[in-house]
Amino acid sequence: MIRNVAESDLSAIVDIENLSFSVPWPRFLFKSYLGCHGFALYEQNGIVKGYVIADIIDSRIHIGSIAVHPKYLRSGIGTKLLDWCIDFGKIYGAAIITLEVREKNRNVQMFYLNNGFKVMGIVTGYYIDDNAVAMYRDI
Q: What's the pTM?
């Protein structure tokens, strides 16, 4: 089930973040998103397995962060969270959805390409440790 994040979920989300990214976001950033409609998680049997942060910016949805616990990768959770973002965008009248992926992370780039995203270009110095591939998809 996908639902909005509560403060009691933050520890599980920070754990997923730390396991998923070489330069993870700090807890206070996640805490700042509490109450935002675009901060959601995927939970199954009481276990938080993934999360997403999606912001509404003008007529687009921007995915700021999305991650699935490494134990549950390739089980369809990422696709469900992405589909949730698309539905979220439709509710708010968004025309496109955008995001950035580390240039080195070819597997995630392929995930998005396979889900209808296109490459906009390379953003130099976007991440502390890598460039970013900016991607978008119409919704």
A: 0.92
